[in-house]
User: Fold Protein of uncharacterized function (DUF2878) from Legionella wadsworthii.
Amino acid sequence: MSQSKVGWCIHFISYYLSWIACFYFAAQNNEYLAPIMGFLFIAVQIAWQSMNRLPYLNALYFAIFIAMVGSLTDMIWLYQNYIYFKANPFRSYFTAPWMICIWLSFGLNLIILNEKLTRYYFSWFILTLFLMPFAYQIGARCSIVFIEKNSPFYYFVGITWAFLLPASFYLYHYFITRNSNSKMEKLSRI
Assistant:
């Protein structure tokens, strides 16, 4: 098996193991073991990229950005009493640590596994419109996310992320292009 296929398998498996660990330990009401396990799987992915001298910093920056945006939207929904997270030491004031870990894993893997597809903004709009509410519904079925007002929440989460995710991809590409152009300018001055 080639190095790129092994890498793809490591990232794919780590992504889902991170989700499963976060879901499992959150369902057990373990506030800290869920994010610790999730972060370990993220660390495995970054270690793989680093050991094989593959780029990972841009993916990590994007993951942190998505985690901040995801946490902010979750905090708004917590404040509006639309949702409640199980295994949340911050109660209704801040996103659960395991959910932040899921956002980080999501953002990291969007870039590492799908960077070539991130310019298809309309496709991501449509996918996110339907899949993001489905992801929250999975959390509700696993009894780790409690959704108070089902109908409006699912509409809000779908529409919100249908705009936020493509906009995040656009900003990612804008800053990557701008950063590479400024490096080229510095090199041309030498």
Summary: The first strand starts at residue 83 and ends at 85.
